Amino acid sequence: MRIIVTGAAGRLGGWLLQVLKKRGHDVTGLDVVKAERVYQVDITDYDAAHKFVYANRPEVVIHPAAWTDVDGCARDPEQAIIVNGFGAQHMALAAAAVNAAVLYVSSNEVFDGTSTRPYYEYDITHPVNPYGYSKWVGERAVMSLNPRHYIVRTAWLFAHGGKNFIQAVLSAAQAGKPLRVVTNEVANPTYNDDLADAIAALIETGRFGLYHFVNEGACSRIQFARYFLDRAGFADTPITPITTQEWPRASTPPTYAALCNLAGRHIGITLRPWQEAVEAFLAKEGLLK
Fold first, then answer.
1. Buried b vs exposed e over 20-40: b needs ≥16 C-beta within 10 Å?
2. Cα 7 from Cα 9, distance rounded (Å)
3. Neighbour-count burial of 272, counting CB atoms closer than 10 A to its CB (0-12 exposed, 13-18 middle, 19+ buried)
4. First and final C-alpha spacing in the chain
5. Phi/psi of residue 136, nearest 5 degrees
6. Alpha carbon distance 266, 272 (integer Å)
7. 98 by DSSP, 3-state: which?
8. Would residue 70 count as lying in a domain?
9. CA distances in angstroms from 240 to 48, 84, 234, 237, 246, listed in the order given
């Protein structure tokens, strides 16, 4: 298939380019920043986005590009909507204009965190922070403007070469800094490479709809940190448990936002347990002890 991937200079978009090419697809990447073998296009510019999609005539547009600075979104909620909401609107409309499908990568933060079980795909959304709201706006735009759509929600993404929770905690442990990690925030740690594989498999099915793609199982932030610290050789490094109230930040995350991959499992697409994914990540980084 001819495929356009947005955010192609980022971790997920960049890895999707590689995965899709290996699977035999004709892939073109775009991003707002300059990068090697990636076209520079601003998705918040409707005319530019439409012109690029029309010129390339894809069969599928995969749209992971987003402003993922959750605290930044809280400080500038209108900009969050422009990037994450209207940007998705532009890509959905451009794809529809050339009869292409669109896949939008969304977040577990479209939920409010009050559930007592993992959220299913069609549970009622109720975002509690500007980032989650902006992703919800993007979901609504894609669903209403392009009937040939996939919505893929994910959570707690960790990738090679980027800034994420694993790298931040390990860097602090290596520097001998005290570690304080929250106990009452729960979700699904998800490996960037596994998510890309699942997305590639999904677009090849043609089964449009709403999906939760996360590594299997859920845990708290402190359980997550304890697991990868132990396997990276820091079993003796203590962690001080704290609550989200003791970790002040601009954005308030949903406390329980675990996702259940029911729809994906129904069509044969699953991701391995998060513990196995963490070990694969650490091994590739040369950190697994």
1. beeeebebbbbbbeebeebee
2. 6
3. middle
4. 41
5. -65, -40
6. 15
7. coil
8. yes
9. 49, 35, 14, 10, 11
Q: Which two tokens stand for residue 220?
A: 């708290």
Structural domain contains residue 180? no
Query: With a cut of 70, which residues of the chain have pLDDT below it?
Result: none
pLDDT at 110: 98
Instruction: Specify if 107 maps to a domain.
Output: yes
Model pLDDT for residues 72-97, shown as the tens digit of each residue: 999 999 999 999 999 999 999 999 99
Residue corresponding to tokens 């442990």: 173
The CATH number covering residue 112 comes to 3.40.50.720
The domain in which residue 67 lies consists of 2-164+188-218+258-274
Buried b (16+ CB within 10 A) or exposed e, 87-114: bbbbbbbbbbebebbbbbbbbbbbbbbe
Rg of the chain on CA atoms, in Å: 19
What is the separation of C-alpha 146 from the centre of its chain, rounded to a whole number of angstroms? 21
Total of domains in the chain: 1
Please identify every residue annotated as catalytic: 131
Q: Of how many residues is the chain composed?
A: 289
Tokens of 38: 């990636």
E strand or H helix at 25: none
Q: Which of 146, 133, 158 is nearest to 63 (CA)?
A: 146
DSSP code at position 104: E
32 in a domain, yes or no? yes
Which residues, other chains included, contact 173 with Cβ-Cβ below 8 Å and sequence gap of 6+? 179, 229, 232, 234, 237
Reported pTM:
0.97
